[in-house]
Amino acid sequence: MARVAIVTGGTRGIGEAISLALKEAGMTVAANYAGNEEKAKAFTERTGIAAFRWDVSDYDACQQGVAEVEAALGPVDVVINNAGITRDGTILKMTAQMWDEVIRTNLGGCFNMAKAAFPGMRERKWGRIVNIGSINGQAGQYGQVNYAAAKSGIHGFTKALAQEGARFGVTVNAIAPGYIDTEMVAAVPADVLEKIVAKIPVGRLGQAHEIARAVAFLCAEDGGFITGSTLSINGGQHMY
Ligand code: NDP
Fold first, then answer.
1. Is 147 a catalytic residue?
2. From 33, 147, 179, 240, active-site residue
3. Beta bridge partners of residue 232, listed in sequence order
4. What parts of the chain have a pLDDT lower than 70?
5. Pocket lining: 14 vs ligand 1, CB cutoff 6 Å
6. What value does the CA radius of gyration of the chain take, rounded to a whole number of Å?
């Protein structure tokens, strides 16, 4: 039986590339999304991968979403916590709502999804969880105390859950991407982006498939000894 994988935020950007890479690796993939129906529909038509809508920041919705995927495709063996948002602003301008939304989505989403899927993985003695962190969670970033805190939290979450899964064949790892050419980065003003690229030793933005191939690597059948690790993929921008 093919492994069943859920990729949160799996219908566009880095998540789309991850969904495709896991499909190519022979898995049955469910791509979750928040609400962009148009993108999700086009993604399913293009890839043949089923898309499921729920909000990862909503605990009950994650429980229901995982149950829905399991009813449709079978027990979930792999969860990629990729869904993420930005609500940037310096601390002077950041509202409590901007803080809450980012923490609840980017970090809370990892907890909510793990709560729904980890018990089954543990029981079946095989599982793979990969959490998408960020270079900005490692190095910090001006105007992103919410995002940097959430992503930094992901790295601690990963190491702690890895210890709980280790004896049960469940690995938990993180990837910390640098700047990747997606809609999230396209929203950065051109002059700011130019300065960012100038600081990347390889001299360009990363591509989504360059993150996806690492996710597929961590989720492989013979990946059982890699757990609690963070793989930095950032063109040499931050060596950590
Ligand atoms: P995009 O903005 O291109 O895509 C985000 C995806 O997440 C969409 O599928 C979106 O769904 C989904 N999503 C957002 N909020 C929720 C939610 N509450 N519930 C379910 N799904 C949600 O993001 P990227 O591909 O750029 O980023 C993917 C991940 O990689 C994020 O965690 C981001 O922080 C991280 N990252 C990105 C970097 C970059 O340079 N791009 C660098 C470092 C890390 P919908 O389409 O319905 O809106």
1. yes
2. 147
3. 176
4. 240
5. yes
6. 17
